[in-house]
Amino acid sequence: MKKSGFISVLLSLFFFASCDVSDEYTVDPQANFEALWKLIDEKYCFFDYKGINWDAVYAKYSVQISDTMDRYQLFNVLGKMLAELQDGHTNLISSFNTSQFWNWHENYPDNFNPVVQGKYLGDAYKSIGELNCCILRNNFGYVYYGSFSASVSEADLDNLFLYFENCRGLIIDIRNNGGGSLVHSERIASRFVKEKLIVGYIIHKKSAGHNDFSDPYPIELEPSKRKKWLRPVAVLTNRGCYSAANDFVNKMKLFSQVKIIGDRTGGGCGLPFHSELPNGWSVRFSSSPLLDVKKEYTEYGIDPQMKVDIEEEDQLNNIDTIIEEALTYLWGETAASVPAVTDTGYINK
């Protein structure tokens, strides 16, 4: 699938609104509970994968609904019901509150300290759009990208590689990147691949059946026609990498010059579906899974190729263990090489 076609499919999945919810406005608690439960029952995509008995969830929460409850009480019950999905892509949104599910990362070590990380960037770091970058010891480039919601243009990437032109290797730090736009994930990843390749698959619900999915459709990544980076790369991850950040790791781990270093990502491989309840509250939840190249879910995260945790003693001494391991890795990969630039892209020999 060409880039434009894939992005069009994603956009249609992001913004398509359910036509199954009644257009008739009502604040009746029972009607809104039934509408939400039915919407999730027919459209949510991870019931079988997560072992969720949605009928049992109905029995648990339906008895908590009453005609006399106010909107705050209703919101609280519906939010708790959605939390049963254990899904960071699931939210109930009203004018006064938004429900969130955070347990996907709360029981994991932070493996990121912005104060310590700031010591590596220093006071004279360079900002190229939303990319904060500097050159570390032994001539290795370092760039921190904190959110895939922050735009990264082709010109930004051109300038980034120009800045790192004489560097032996590159560290891309996306720790605590909670996701954002898959467009940015694809745009950046396309600068690290030599030729078109399949980077995953997408499936979608065909009916209201919990496990009635389409056949997997391949997602292809085409290399950028602009400058590409083919020297060694270390991508730094922690449990705070979610959604589009998880997707970025899913792509980058396929490239021979890239090593994923740090902790398991947070996951989040379901494309969100948006709809509305009869009382006007918005609801978002996962409806179409993105699979990796082995056609497996990454909803619960992606393991690094080098597992590294920040050591407490290092942190007390303003040392980032994960950055240090990345520098050691890159040094081992590049000690005998001399960086070179060609007309077709950067190479590592």
Written overview of the protein:
The protein starts with a helix and ends with a strand. The model is unreliable at 1-21 (pLDDT under 50). It is of the alpha/beta class and 349 residues long. Helix content is 32%, strand content 19%. Helix 8 (154-163) links the parallel strand 4 (140-144) and strand 5.
Chain-wise SSE layout:
Blueprint: H1 3-15, H2 29-43, H3 47-50, H4 54-62, H5 71-83, E1 91-93, H6 103-106, H7 114-121, E2 126-128, E3 131-136, E4 140-144, H8 154-163, E5 169-173, H9 182-189, E6 197-202, E7 217-221, E8 233-237, H10 244-252, E9 258-262, E10 270-276, E11 282-291, E12 306-307, H11 312-316, H12 321-334, E13 340-342, E14 345-347
Structure, briefly:
With 349 residues, this protein is α/β, with parallel strands linked by helices. It is built from twelve helices and 14 strands. Strands 2-3-4-5-8-9-12 form a seven-stranded mixed β-sheet. Strands 1, 6, 7, 10 and 11 form a five-stranded antiparallel β-sheet that branches. The chain has a two-stranded antiparallel ribbon with strand order 13-14.
List the defining traits of the structure above:
single chain, 349 residues, alpha/beta, seven-stranded mixed beta sheet, five-stranded antiparallel beta sheet, 12 helices, 14 strands, 19% strand, disordered N terminus
